[in-house]
Design a protein that fits this description.
Number of strands: 9
CATH architecture: 2-Layer Sandwich
Order of helices and strands: EHEEEHEHHEEEHEH
Helix content: 25-40%
Shape: globular
CATH topology: Endonuclease, Chain A
Largest sheet: 7 strands, mixed
Number of domains: 1
Distance between the termini: 37 Å
Number of helices: 6
Strand content: 25-35%
């Protein structure tokens, strides 16, 4: 099954449904990362929004391994929110690396589903912003092994730093993997 997702449908299918369904691992690759907030329950009749980091923290607490690969340092709000989740800081289940050459935007859940998209991990890209304030985004959600397998291998090679030693942009890298 392959499904085209546009704009607000990305938030519903990926952020509300797919990401929280992870049981073994969640890998996220993005160029930009900011203070994405997501709906999480209600306070009275009003929807409660929390940092996406809260979702990642919950997954780590359930034993899900989370990898986050991004191209540049997160914004100040993200960094401030990050400090509120010590499980992300202290757990071996949460891994975060920075590679300035990453421009891919993808999410893999348990090796069973992959989302490949134009959207960065930001409120305007994937978040619960008003349709009048969101970016125009598109993505493909698939469970087809012939796509997920090579994508998983490729992301793993990025994570392991297979490209680092030969990278001609290494002098600009703030934190080489290898």
């Amino acid at each position: 099954m392959t499904e085209l997702l546009l704009n607000e449908a990305i938030y519903k299918r990926i952020i509300e449904e797919l990401v929280p369904s992870a049981e073994r691992y969640l890998w996220i690759v993005t160029a930009d990362i900011k203070d994405l907030h997501v709906a999480r329950g209600k306070i009275g009749r009003k929807t409660r929004f929390v940092p996406f980091l809260s979702v990642l923290n919950d997954l780590v607490q359930k034993g899900v391994a989370v990898r986050l690969i991004h191209a540049k340092e997160p914004g100040p709000r993200f960094r401030k929110d990050f400090d509120k989740y010590p499980d992300l800081i202290n757990s071996d289940l949460f891994e975060r690396i920075l590679c300035p050459r990453v421009h891919t935007k993808a999410i893999i859940v348990d090796g069973k589903s992959a989302f490949i998209t134009s959207a960065n991990l930001t409120g305007a890209g994937l978040g619960a912003k008003s349709p009048l304030r969101r970016n125009f985004e598109a993505g493909i959600l698939t469970d087809e092994k012939e796509h997920i397998g090579p994508l998983t291998e490729w992301i793993d090679s990025l994570y392991l730093g297979d490209h680092c030693l030969k990278c001609q942009r290494r002098k600009y890298c703030p934190d080489p993997i290898a």
